[in-house]
Amino acid sequence: MRGELSFATRLTGVLATMLLLGCGLAAGLNYLKFERMLLEQQARVLEILAGELGSTVENSLALGVRLAGVPGAQALLERSRAAEPLIAGLTIADADHVVLFDTDRQNMGGTLPRDHLAPQGQAESWRFRDGPRYGIGAPIINGFGQPEGAILLRYERSAVDERLAAALLAMMQATLLALAIAIPAGALGLHLVTRHTRRWFAAMQEAMQPGAAPAALAAGLQVAIADTDTVLTEAEAQLEQIAAQMPESVPQPMEAIAP
Question: Would you say which domain of life the source belongs to (predicted)?
Fold first, then answer.
């Protein structure tokens, strides 16, 4: 009985381990896929917003003013940041990468970091990293088609992390529910499916014990073992006889070759 329980328990453990690994792998892959999708979705929405702010500034440049003298630029940035909780900061810089307007006023007059700038020859929006923050840059083009500067939008992924946490919790709940149903059902199914196998192993184990009961399986197994032992013993005796009849070969010394 102990062997039967051990056999069923091992199979149940293998099944549970495979289910756990499979569910964990599926949850991990879905989490990474969902994270990438949410980050891309958020970036595209903010990229559109940055482009619209850049177009608003370009319309002011069409009136003949320089970027540094655009009326209401600072107020535009502050209103946009207050209206969109995802935005962590907004910056307008000129063609020399000097900060002209910024929602964080202490940055005004400084120079943009090199990794925030557009790649060489970039005529469309670009993305960058600002420490733990993400960033989107959009060029500002004057009425002559020349780059006048750029607007930079920085944002954090806190909203994405909240949605990821909710999605991960839902996946874990579904996984635990599936395991709670699958493992007991699988254990019961294995117990029923392997019933004949477990009985056969138990009978084999009993038949191999010394002084086993004269059951049909035990008698047949013991006869087979005895026949095998007899065959092996005869084969060993024949090999010994053949080895005794073989003449011993004495190695002959090699003759010296005359020079």
Answer: Bacteria
**pLDDT bucket at 152, cuts 50 / 70 / 90:** very high
CATH architecture, domain defined by 7-162: 2-Layer Sandwich (3.30)
CA–CA dist 194, 174 (Å, integer) = 29
| Structure confidence at residue 102 (pLDDT) | 92
Amino acid at 214: P
CA distance 217 to 187: 29
Q: Using the 8-state DSSP alphabet, how is residue 139 labeled?
A: E
Q: How far is CA 252 from CA 123, 195, 249, 259, in A?
A: 93, 68, 9, 21
CA 223 to chain centre: 57
Q: Is 15 exposed, middle or buried (0-12, 13-18, 19+ CB in 10 A)?
A: middle
pTM for the predicted model, two decimal places: 0.60
Mean pLDDT value across the chain: 79
Place of tokens 């990229």: 47
Start-end of H helices in the chain: 2-61, 73-83, 158-193, 195-207, 216-245
**Percent of the chain's residues with pLDDT above 70:** 76
